[in-house]
């Protein structure tokens, strides 16, 4: 059982690393960003609500994402643990998560903080491309697809997320500093924080993460 939260600025590599860890360790990767993008694609009520917040680089209201997580954690596959990516993103979200877990008799095991400098983050976000179909993440320079514009895994079209455009990136970093960065201290106080350098090559970060996960498996 390993209940993990990934912390860190947008572009630190949370999604990329979580997908690989999820495959290797057989626990689900739960990304509120992915769930919200799915909802937008499917044109649901949730999607319509979330769209303008996301495209401008702002946060979706706390209650909305907490409700998503509450439902998602009830899924059978989350019993053996999970990696939460992109949630919590504010102190109130972290408090609500703590309460939710306490009510179900569980708790978090670790909050893993992927640390990366702003320079690296901006470079990663502006070159990021994601598969419209399966969500796999690429980068025009660092992780290019084999065929330009197409996903290596499923052949889906690669898109440049609206919130990976320059103005939205600036806004997201500002939101991160104002609302999310405080969670580092919050989890440190609860003795859950582990820092992992994420400015380095993807493989190097992955090895560090494997080490942490193996101690739980
Ligand atoms: P990244 O980590 O690259 O910024 P995500 O895919 O995690 O991207 O999130 C994309 C957007 O989805 C966020 O900018 C925000 O608008 C919305 N979002 C995702 N998770 C949350 C959350 N926990 N609280 C509020 N908004 C969220």
Structure characterization notes:
Strand 5 (128-131) and strand 6 (137-139) form a beta hairpin. The mean pLDDT is 94. The chain is 48% helix and 16% strand. It has 217 residues and is an alpha/beta fold. The N and C termini lie close together (7 Å). The longest helix has 15 residues, at 166-180. Bound molecules: adenosine-5'-diphosphate. Adenosine-5'-diphosphate binds at residues 10, 14, 31-33, 36, 53-54, 57-60, 65, 86-89, 93, 163, 172.
Present the secondary structure layout:
Layout: E1 2-7, H1 14-25, E2 29-31, H2 32-42, H3 45-55, H4 62-73, E3 81-85, H5 91-103, E4 110-115, H6 118-127, E5 128-131, E6 137-139, E7 158-159, H7 166-180, H8 182-189, E8 193-197, H9 202-214
Parallel strand pairs: 1-3, 1-4, 2-3, 4-8
Antiparallel strand pairs: 5-6, 5-7
Adenosine-5'-diphosphate binds at residues 10, 14, 31-33, 36, 53-54, 57-60, 65, 86-89, 93, 163, 172.
Short description:
The chain is of the alpha/beta class and 217 residues long. It has helices at 14-25, 32-42, 45-55, 62-73, 91-103, 118-127, 166-180, 182-189, 202-214; strands at residues 2-7, 29-31, 81-85, 110-115, 128-131, 137-139, 158-159, 193-197. 48% of the residues lie in helices and 16% in strands.
Total strand count, please?
8
Helical fraction: 40-55%
In terms of per-residue confidence, which ranges show pLDDT below 50 for 5 or more consecutive residues? Answer: none
Strand share of the residues? 15-25%
SSE string: EHEHHHEHEHEEEHHEH
Main β-sheet, in a few words? 5 strands, parallel
**Tally the helices: what do you get?**
9
Strand order of the largest sheet: 2-3-1-4-8
Query: Kindly state the mean pLDDT as a whole number?
Result: 94
> Rounded to an integer, what's the Rg over CA atoms?
16 Å
Bound molecules: adenosine-5'-diphosphate
What form results from the Cα inertia axes? globular
Which class best fits the helix and strand makeup? Answer: alpha/beta
- The termini sit apart by 7 Å
Question: What oligomeric state do these chains adopt?
Answer: single chain
């Amino acid at each position: 059982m390993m209940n993990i939260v990934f912390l860190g600025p947008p572009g630190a590599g949370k999604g990329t690393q979580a997908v690989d860890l999820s495959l290797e360790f057989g626990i689900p990767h739960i990304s509120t960003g992915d769930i919200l993008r799915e909802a937008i694609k499917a044109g649901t009520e949730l999607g319509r609500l979330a769209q303008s917040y996301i495209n401008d680089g702002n946060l979706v209201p706390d209650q909305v994402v907490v409700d998503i997580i509450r439902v998602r954690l009830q899924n059978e596959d989350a019993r053996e643990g999970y990696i939460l990516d992109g949630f919590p993103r504010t102190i109130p979200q972290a408090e609500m998560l703590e309460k939710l877990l306490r009510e179900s008799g569980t708790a978090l095991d670790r909050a893993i903080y992927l640390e990366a400098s702003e320079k690296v983050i901006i470079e990663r976000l502006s070159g990021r491309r994601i598969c419209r179909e399966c969500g796999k993440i690429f980068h025009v320079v660092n992780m290019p697809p084999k065929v330009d514009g197409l996903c290596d895994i499923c052949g889906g079209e690669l898109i440049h997320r609206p919130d990976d455009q320059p103005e939205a990136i600036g806004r997201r970093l500002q939101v991160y500093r104002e609302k999310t960065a405080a969670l580092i201290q919050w989890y440190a106080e609860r003795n859950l924080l582990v820092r992992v350098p994420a400015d380095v090559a993807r493989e190097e970060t992955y090895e560090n993460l494997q080490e942490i996960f193996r101690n739980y498996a």
